[in-house]
Amino acid sequence: MDPPSHKKNFKDKEPVSKVEMAMQKSAQQELKQRQGAENYAFNRVIIELEQQQFHEFCKQMQHPGE
């Protein structure tokens, strides 16, 4: 390969890598948003379970013989 064609190939690859980087960044942002939504939903479920357990505990403390 002669040097001018090498430079041409390098220039052709440069925009592709920028596009790929932009796609990766976009995919990472989408993943981060999805994980945030999943964490929010998971935390909500855990809080509800903790509240149910706390109410059951309170009932047991009010009526220890039952």
From TrEMBL:
PANTHER family: SMALL VASOHIBIN-BINDING PROTEIN
Compartment(s): Cytoplasm, Cytoskeleton; Secreted
Domain of life: Eukaryota
Protein family according to the UniProt entry: Belongs to the SVBP family.
Source organism per UniProt: Sciurus carolinensis (Eastern gray squirrel)
GO biological process: negative regulation of protein ubiquitination; protein secretion
Pfam families: CCDC23
Protein name: Small vasohibin-binding protein
CC terms in the record's Gene Ontology section: apical part of cell; cytoskeleton; extracellular region
Keyword annotations of the record: Coiled coil, Cytoplasm, Cytoskeleton, Secreted
